C-alpha cells in the first residue's frame, strides 16, 4: 500500500459525552429513588395515655419498684376514667389494661412481655404471675362477646401490680 495515504480516525460527535453523563445521572437517580421509595418512614412513638394529675410514687429503700408501681397504677386509673367517660369501649379498656400490666411486668422482670402469650408467661418463672391475668383478659380483648367486666379486670390488674 505504498500509494495509500493514512487518514486520521473520525472524531466522536461533541454530544456523546453529554449522553454518557445523562445515562450516569439517570442510573444514580434511579437507585436513589429505589432506596427512598422502599424504605418505611421512621416509626413515631405512640403517646402514652398517662394521667397528668397522678405522678408516680418515688422509689424507696423498701420498694425499689415504687416508681414503676405508681406509674402502672396511674395508667390503670386513667383507663378507668376513660372507660367511665365513654372514650373507650370494653375491648379497648381491656387492651389498655393488658398494655399497662405488660409494661409493668417488663420493668419489673426485665423480660420483654409486650407480645408474650399466657403460655409463654407461664413457662418463664420470672413472668409466671402475669399468666393468669393474660388468660383472664384474653376473652374480653379478642372474643366476639364476653361477660367479663372492666371493673373486675381493673381490680385484678391493680392487685397484681400492688402485690408483685
List keywords for this structure.
transmembrane helix; mainly alpha; single chain; 164 residues; rod-shaped; 0% strand
Number of strands: 0
> Describe the biggest sheet?
none
Gap from first CA to last CA: 104 Å
Share of helix, binned: 55-70%
Mean pLDDT: 81
Region (Disordered): 41-65
Protein name: DUF4129 domain-containing protein
Organism: Cellulomonas wangsupingiae
Keywords: Membrane, Transmembrane, Transmembrane helix
Would you mind describing this structure in some detail?
- It is a single chain.
- This protein has 164 residues and is mainly α.
- The chain is built from six helices and no strands.
- The longest helix is centred in the N-terminal third of the chain and has 23 residues, at 16-38.
- Residues 50-55 have low confidence and may be disordered.
- This is DUF4129 domain-containing protein.
- Keywords: Membrane, Transmembrane, Transmembrane helix.
Amino acid at each position: 500500500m505504498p500509494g495509500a495515504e493514512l487518514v486520521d480516525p473520525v472524531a466522536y460527535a461533541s454530544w456523546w459525552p453529554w449522553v454518557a453523563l445523562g445515562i450516569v445521572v439517570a442510573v444514580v437517580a434511579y437507585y436513589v429513588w429505589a432506596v427512598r421509595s422502599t424504605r418505611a418512614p421512621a416509626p413515631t412513638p405512640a403517646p402514652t395515655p398517662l394521667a397528668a394529675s397522678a405522678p408516680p410514687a418515688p422509689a424507696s429503700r423498701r420498694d425499689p419498684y415504687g416508681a414503676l408501681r405508681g406509674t402502672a397504677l396511674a395508667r390503670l386509673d386513667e383507663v378507668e376514667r376513660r372507660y367511665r367517660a365513654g372514650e373507650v369501649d370494653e375491648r379497648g379498656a381491656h387492651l389498655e389494661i393488658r398494655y399497662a400490666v405488660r409494661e409493668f411486668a417488663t420493668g419489673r422482670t426485665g423480660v420483654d412481655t409486650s407480645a408474650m402469650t399466657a403460655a409463654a408467661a407461664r413457662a418463664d418463672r420470672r413472668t409466671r404471675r402475669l399468666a393468669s391475668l393474660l388468660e383472664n383478659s384474653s376473652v374480653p380483648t379478642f372474643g366476639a362477646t364476653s361477660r367479663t367486666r372492666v371493673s373486675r379486670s381493673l381490680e385484678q390488674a391493680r392487685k397484681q401490680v400492688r402485690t408483685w
